[in-house]
Amino acid sequence: MRDGVEITSRKSGDFDWLGIAGEVDMHASPQVRKALLDALQPKSALLVDLSAVRYMDSSGVACLVEAFQTARKQGSRFALVAVAQPVLNVLRLARLDKVFTLYASLDEALAGGG
Amino acid sequence: MMPIFDREFPAQTAALAEVRAALDAACRGAGMSERATGDLVLAVNEACMNVIQHGYAYAPDAVFRLRLLQDGGMLHVHVLDNARPAGLDDLCPRALDDLRPGGLGVHFMRQLSDGIDYLPAPAGYGNLLQISKRIA
Q1: Domain range for residue B48?
Q2: Could you report how far apart the first and last alpha carbons of chain B are, in Å?
Q3: Average pLDDT over every residue of B108-135
Q4: Which domains does chain A have, with CATH numbers?
Q5: What is the domain-level CATH number for residue B78?
Q6: What ipTM was reported for this prediction?
Q7: How far apart are CA B69 and CA A1, in angstroms?
Q8: Residues of A in contact with B38 (CB under 8 A)
Q9: In a mutagenesis test of the B interface, which of A1, A3, A25 is the best target, namely the one with the most B β-carbons within 10 Å?
Q10: What is the pLDDT of residue B5?
């Protein structure tokens, strides 16, 4: 998979897990946006694994912001897990690394109140 | 100043991966570090997104051209298009504490480069956006 994204999801106990891999650019972000919003249910918990994201631009960041705001309106928990360096770089650039909840691993996320 | 890279791309989101790959190779070939190249490629990607979305409004047959020029220790990327005329007002970033999706592209372009500006477009083009970054 040179270009594009691969999205996998699973439900495990009290939380939904969404894994995003590849390049989240303007071409892929509509797919990522839909997956994030579809996965968000009221009063739920969504953990988004970004460990395999090789590239993210501002359209990908916009997807995460929209999901974050939707979760907040729904009273849901929304957290980013194992954020890969290219994603962390753009989140810092947008000063969002202190806005989103970030966990180093799934175990840490679950210990944080899954 | 002769371009060391000069190529036309379809103004389609599907072309962005190829834009990034081609520009990455050209910047590395000019001696730019991996980190600086990554920053410049992301900045140019944002500029191309603006051309596709705001300039051409996703017109199916539109194209843009990228040129890479080296001036001593500086690389300049020229983004040339025939979209609606753009100006300095289009290069004003929004406030970051306004938490909402979108509108971060200009902020990224400014933060990741050493300068962006609209220059007089050469014959045959409507806009010339220059994005500059020091090689080292």
Answers
A1: 5-134
A2: 20
A3: 95
A4: 5-111 (3.30.750.24)
A5: 3.30.565.10
A6: 0.90
A7: 31
A8: 86
A9: A25
A10: 96
